[in-house]
Design goal:
Elements lengths: L2 E4 L5 E4 L1 E2 L8 H10 L8 E8 L9 E7 L4 E6 L7 H11 L5 H14 L6 H8 L14 E7 L4 H12 L4 E11 L4 E10 L2 H26 L5 E4 L2 E3 L1 H15 L5 H7 L11 E3 H8 L14 E2 L5 E4 L8 H12 L4 E5 L11
Parallel strand pairs: 6-7, 7-8
Antiparallel strand pairs: 1-2, 3-8, 4-5, 5-6, 8-9, 10-11, 10-15, 12-14, 13-14
């Protein structure tokens, strides 16, 4: 990033970034800067300990220890000009903090306030800072977050940070850059959150919501065992076989239909994510991924009048079978499917 100074003649003078060491700014100086102005890290934080080292059998020290507005512990690790191994240090610290309780945090903060000669009540400060906090019912430090601060981050650290975020570990990288204006002897520090980027974070949140919705659907189907039997033209079937036999019957009555026309009549929205019927190559590719999604025995293959071979989806449960039944009744112009034996799980299945 470039920093420019606007001159009186409306020209721009570039002020180049330099290393903190060039102006004798130490890591301890950056630590003090963040301690007194934590919002430089891009969020509201309550720093309640500096050089925290209350460990058993260890002399490791956390540069700064903080709380965020949600009541999560935040490990802040600072390196001046490079961040070698700071990710591993921070992960170790986070693990060592996993047993810290609310009362531990209050005691740590009170000691910190006394050390800095600030006459404030630690418990009251924490309770006011955490949004909607009630120490009797609100879970404290549900998550432990990590903030890495440095002038530069290696590819290794950014790769580790992105991977940890993909595993739902909340790690943040804040780049601090130093600028010195020799004409005025002024020092400037620019703060930039490089991980996560705002756009990437919004995308990941959206993707995670979609994945959560899909997993909720899968769990809802798998957690409710349903052995309901359905009757179609005098024979009883389970859900998957019901769909297969109905498709065979409908195609037998309409031999002129092509695969594309069948897919339009029985769209993937009926199943929720998979096509109801696909060609042989597509089904084979999907089944070969390790999960059988389509009936592929010789007797189950459907030979269409167009010469194509169709395979029917086998993945049907209480969350999508009613969609298919409704569509069949609409196409057949009558209720050709009836429930014979309801599941012993007591599910309320009322389709005709």
């Amino acid at each position: 990033m470039a920093l420019y100074k606007l001159q009186s003649d409306h020209s721009l003078e570039e002020i180049k970034a330099t290393a903190f060491s060039s102006n004798q700014i130490l890591e301890q100086d950056l630590q003090k800067l963040i301690l007194h102005k934590p919002e430089i890290l891009g969020e509201d934080l309550l720093i309640f300990s500096e050089e925290y080292c209350e460990w058993n059998e260890s002399r490791k020290r956390i540069d700064l220890l903080a709380l965020d507005r949600a009541g999560n512990l935040v490990v802040i690790e600072i390196k001046r000009d490079h961040g070698f191994h700071m990710d591993l240090q921070a992960i170790r610290y986070a693990a060592m903090l996993s047993q810290m309780s609310y009362e531990d945090a209050v005691a740590t903060y009170q000691a910190f306030l006394q050390k800095t000669a600030l006459e404030r009540d630690a418990r009251d400060e924490i309770n006011k800072f955490i949004t909607g906090f009630n120490e009797e019912i609100t879970e404290f430090a549900k998550d432990i977050r990590i903030i890495l601060v440095s002038n530069e981050f290696s590819k290794e650290i950014t790769a580790v940070s992105l991977w940890l975020r993909s595993k739902n570990i909340d790690i943040k990288c804040v780049k601090l850059e130093h600028y010195y204006d020799k004409n005025t002897s002024s020092t400037y520090i620019d703060s930039d959150v490089i991980i996560p980027l705002k756009e990437a974070e919004d995308y990941l949140i959206s993707t995670q919501k979609k994945e959560d919705t899909q997993q909720d659907f899968i769990r809802s189907v798998n957690s409710q065992k349903d052995y309901t039997k359905y009757e179609f033209k005098g024979q009883e079937y389970g859900k998957g076989r019901l769909v297969l036999e109905v498709m065979k019957d409908y195609i037998q009555q309409h031999p002129h239909l092509s695969l594309i026309e069948l897919q339009q009549l029985f769209p993937s929205s009926l199943q929720s994510s998979l096509d109801v019927i696909v060609d042989l190559d597509s089904a084979t590719e999907i089944n070969n991924k390790g999960y059988k999604r389509y009936f592929n025995q010789e007797d189950d293959l459907i030979h269409l009048g167009s010469g194509e071979i169709g395979l029917v989806c086998s993945q049907w449960g209480i969350g999508n079978i009613d969609n298919f039944i409704d569509k069949v009744h609409d196409l057949y112009k009558s209720e050709v499917i009836t429930i014979r034996n309801k599941s012993k799980s007591g599910l309320n299945l009322t389709k005709g």
